[in-house]
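USER:
Try writing one entry.

ASSISTANT:
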Amino acid sequence: MSISPRRSAVALAALTALLVSGCSDGPDRPRPAPTSPAPSSAAPAPSDPPAADPAARAAALVGTLSDEDLVGQVLMPYAYGSSATEVSAGSAAGNRALAGVDTPAEMVAKYRLGGLILVGFSADDPTSGNQATTNVDNPKQVRALTDGLRAAAGKLPAGAAPFLIGTDQEYGVVTRITDGVTLLPSPLAAGAAGNPALTEAAWRAAGAELAAMGVNLDFAPVADVLATRSAVIGSRSFGADPATASPQVAGAVRGLQAEGVGAAVKHFPGHGLSAEDSHTELPVIKQSRAELDRLAFPPFRAGIGAGAMAVMSAHLDVKAVDPGTPATFSRKLLTDVLRGQLGFQGVVITDGMNMAPAKKWSPGEAAVRALNAGNDLILMTPNVTQAYDGLRAALKDGSLPRARLVEAVTRVLTMKFRLAGRDAPALSTLDGAAHRKAADDLATAAVTVLRGKCGGAVTGPVSVTSSGGRERTRKLLTEALTAAGVKVVPSGGTVVHLVGYGDGAKDLSAGAAVTVAMDTPYVLSGAKSPTLMATYSSTRASMTGLAAVLAGKARPAGRSPVPVSGLPATTCRT
């Protein structure tokens, strides 16, 4: 279903005002039935919304919900367990500590939740510190889990709106579901390829696979410009230049949403402006407001212009706008800047509320502060019970205005209805030939030569070495080289050395003929190899693209999207 964002925004505003005015006698006033409001010339009556208007459907549904339902709709926690209804003793204990229930389905029912985030982590994941568990194993398991969650949510008063199930499927180092799916190269690889059409095609494949598993909200793409050597953002970014990163963000948004998966661009107003890690501290953004407008905001504008349904706020201290207040809790940044100046009308979602800067307050107070600042969804609270009770108490005593809560829920439900009405693809479509081709095309276009002959093929037998712990990637490249007609030997010959996430000078090999950076390429500035290359990613697609270039079957057309000391963006000329 397609609908003009402006038309949805106008309908949302008008109908929300109608609902708030009908509930102005205090937090304990009974909610009106759907047929109670009188018709209005300014907007359709909530009892009879146009079928094609998600905002009208949302406002009508809000008019039927109790206080408890309204509060639940703005919460999107994580849960323990790989099934909605059957969990291990350890997962049950985790859920009891988090929410006083045993299973994810019980959590959905008890707190009338608007959504749930699926979590997990891998070895090279810079976000692993705030992933308390993992509940993603393989596509079949994920689909069974999401089916079970939707069955539980469908029994709620808000069940007419699709339940939100989100995850951080960014591709590259932050990829929650890795087995049995098409793995795209990292966003930095897409930035190197510099072709938004390839990015859109690849992310459309990704959207189809997420939808097949029952995921309808992706906390991606990352719109942060990599203005610093941030290890926590790194290859999650499309690059250091907002002019080239912006169309990549827009392409990823269009691709995901074409397949019925909402995109949440992040981390507003721009985590790449600081090298500090907001999982453990409050990064300080020291750039001037003019620098924010020039450097940080363009990719967010591009994502919004492409129709992104959501924006994620970040735990960042932006000195030029609201010094001392994390952006997540800043009305100046979220309401005045993001909505007022950038024109965003969709859902604003907090970054994880279990991260250190958000834990300055209790879960209840943090949730209230975040909602009052302009967020519409509270993500990953460290205690669901306390967040839920804190929001209800604030609604009752007036510290959370009813108008703000109604506005937030209406936005959330509008997004849900925009995602409705589409059948999920079959699981058999996952990692299919067309999807793999889209990933391969993007990954091959990203391969960059920063030193050495452009397009020079390796000669003679090749041996593949790497820094520690990369046996799987070495195997992928060995297989790809063999398929491309290159003889690979256990040792000797032309040495191709791989370095990746977290590697430094100590992980380089002085005797390698070719050194390849599979994450940010900064490490190449210290490499002695006569040929330096970058794939920015270690996926099967990236190793296939690298093999094609090494074998002389593809031209290395990529350009480094970040500056590397002493090296050009490419030695190839178009």
Summary: The longest strand covers residues 262-268.
